[in-house]
Specification:
two-stranded antiparallel ribbon; mainly alpha; 2 strands
Length: 470
């Protein structure tokens, strides 16, 4: 069915969005059924069974299924875009953070708080709301997303631009992602607030041993998913069979990298067990044979690659129709001069980022969503009284957070309003954006009046205004 849908979408470009929509619906339903089946297995890992709240569990599983499809879709869509526009590749951490924010919204809604804290740890830095958890999650998902982005850029570059130029584009993506992958590992391991994750990662003979092997494992899975998605987006049964065979063969190296990246002997609760048994077995006490653990991992790795490839297939169906390698090469070669000879176009990417970022800020102001009913007049009176308390103490962490929070917002807003090669116009627009930023800051603080757990402060408005000016 998937092959027929994809072929129909490729032959008729006006049907490609419809084909992508059908594939997305099938993927979400399939992921829901697989999760529902998995948590009912008698020997399923207990941390998987306890992942979703018991009340309204089908709703949470459905949201988590959307998350799984999104993780495969977004990096493939962005990677194909970057393969055709390599000048945007150095901004990989921004792309990965955008994917991570959407992932966080879906994860925050679908998974229990206890499961989140087991992996991310409890908030300790007193940033307020979900900010600390979001930053830790962005680092953890950044390891996966950056690997998928690099693989998607490389696969898209080879397919669209030819092997020689594709390797160069993929190398540029790898160099751009490497420093941020290291930073993500520092946050996940070195600056971790929980040992539930770090105790499973091999740290002998050095701390970096486990992260290196696990990074290579992520690269293997990402590469397999990218090859699968590219193989199924076009015609050719032999190409698809080769891609499927390659995915199966990669389970061997994947198992070896998993074994090298995890602790062989974890001591906890008076028991000594390998980390692999904890992840793939029903619990710490049940000693499954290594052959069974390998088969379980092979199933997990193949399911991950299939899920990511399916999401990538949806993304590739939504990309512009491919007109051959020569056409792509000419397009990339002529793209930059054409942009230099014209005034440029509106920053649509900046506009989309600005809209999502504003929605994200309002989300952060209302967490944990304990909204109280109040008339506008009463709310305004409370707001005026709160901002009038200028003698309240300053919090250094809150100040730094609020300053940094508004720097990317107004930067992206200016990029959305401006046009290329029109620098004088930006200075004219900057005051208007600054005023809009101050109005947004006041609106954010006013919104917190309706959240009893949040504190309205004039210091937050001052800090956000400083970030706005920067």
């Amino acid at each position: 069915m998937a092959q027929g849908i994809v072929n129909l979408g490729i032959r008729k470009s006006n049907l490609r969005p419809l084909a992508a929509l059908i594939l997305a619906a099938v993927a979400i339903v399939g992921a829901y059924a697989a999760i529902h089946f998995l948590i009912r297995l008698p020997n399923a890992p207990y941390n998987v069974r306890e992942l979703f709240p018991r009340r309204y569990r089908p709703v949470y599983i459905a949201a988590f299924s959307v998350l799984l499809v999104w993780i495969g879709f977004a990096p493939a869509w962005i990677g194909d875009f970057l393969a055709r526009r390599p000048r945007y590749i150095p901004f990989l951490p921004i792309w990965a953070s955008g994917v991570g924010l959407v992932s966080w919204f879906l994860l925050r809604f679908s998974v229990t708080l206890e499961s989140q804290k087991d992996i991310l740890g409890a908030p300790r830095l007193e940033w307020g709301g979900d900010w600390e958890q979001i930053c830790r999650f962005l680092a953890l998902q950044g390891l996966v997303c950056l690997s998928l982005l690099v693989a998607s850029v490389a696969a898209g570059g080879v397919y669209r631009l030819g092997r020689r130029r594709g390797v160069k584009v993929g190398g540029l993506a790898l160099l751009s992602a490497a420093p941020w992958i290291i930073l993500c590992w520092l946050v996940v391991v070195e600056w971790a607030d929980t040992d539930n994750l770090t105790e499973l990662i091999r740290s002998v003979p050095a701390k970096w041993v486990g992260p290196v092997w696990l990074t290579l494992l992520l690269g293997v899975i990402a590469a397999g998913a990218a090859v699968l998605a590219r193989a199924w987006v076009g015609p050719g049964i032999l190409k698809r069979l080769v891609a499927v065979g390659l995915a199966v063969l990669l389970t061997g190296p994947g198992w070896a990298l998993l074994y090298l990246g995890l602790e062989p002997a974890v001591e906890k609760y008076g028991l000594t067990f390998p980390a692999i048994r904890f992840l793939l077995g029903p619990d710490r006490r049940v000693e499954l044979p290594w052959s069974v653990l390998f088969l379980r991992w092979a199933g997990v790795q193949l399911a991950l690659m299939a899920m990511l490839a399916w999401g990538g297939l949806i993304a590739l169906c939504m990309r512009p129709r491919q007109g051959g390698l020569e056409h792509e090469r000419q397009t990339v070669e002529c793209e930059r001069p054409a942009r230099q000879d014209t005034p440029g176009s509106a920053g649509k990417v900046y506009l989309i980022v600005t809209i999502f970022y504003v929605a994200f800020l309002f989300y952060g102001c209302l967490v944990p969503f304990g909204i109280q009913s109040m008339s506008f007049g009463r709310a305004w009176a409370v707001f005026r009284q709160s901002v009038g308390l200028t003698q309240a103490g300053w919090s250094q962490s809150d100040m730094v957070t609020n300053v940094l929070m508004f720097v990317p917002l107004t930067f992206c807003a200016l990029g959305a309003w401006s046009r290329e090669n029109t620098r004088p116009g930006r200075w004219f627009m900057a005051p208007a954006i600054f005023v809009a930023g101050v109005a947004l800051s006041i609106s954010l603080e006013f919104t917190q009046v309706f959240a009893p757990s949040r504190i309205v402060s004039i210091h937050d408005i001052i800090s956000q205004t400083i970030g706005n000016a920067i």
